[in-house]
Amino acid sequence: MKILRNLHPAYAELAKAIRNEAEYFERNAERMRYPAFRQQGLFVGSGVVEAACKEVIGSRLKRSGMFWDRPRRQRHHRFALLPPQRAL
């Protein structure tokens, strides 16, 4: 944060962007304890979650004989992400 706070760019728009980034990191520092999360064996990136969503949604929508119009497909995506007891 000190590095970002000590930057003094000549352009006001750039200064505002840097200030916004510094504030974001300060507000979310507690959520960004990546080394501690890795030590606990937790996944840090979004790749695992994205792959799981792709697998779940893809496997449900791409079965043989499945044809979806757009409104039905969008509704199905929302329900596919709910826990099983809420998907009814």
Which labels suit this protein?
mainly alpha, 5 helices, 88 residues
Walk me through the structure.
It is a single chain. The chain has 88 residues and is mostly helical. Helix 4 packs across helix 5 (70-80). It is 60% helix and 0% strand. The mean pLDDT is 77. It has 2 domains: 2-32; 47-86, no CATH class.
| Portion of residues within helices | 55-70%
Structural class: mainly alpha
What value does the Rg take, in angstroms?
21 Å
Order of helices and strands: HHHHH
Unreliable parts: none
> What does the overall shape look like?
elongated
Instruction: Tell me what portion of residues adopts beta-strand conformation.
Output: under 5%
Tell me the number of helical segments per DSSP (H or I, 4 or more residues long). Answer: 5
Write down the overall mean pLDDT. 77
List the helices and strands and how they pair.
Blueprint: H1 2-6, H2 12-27, H3 34-39, H4 47-61, H5 70-80
Helix pairs in contact: 4-5
Give a quick rundown of the structure:
The chain has 2 domains: 2-32; 47-86, no CATH class. With 88 residues, it is mostly helical.
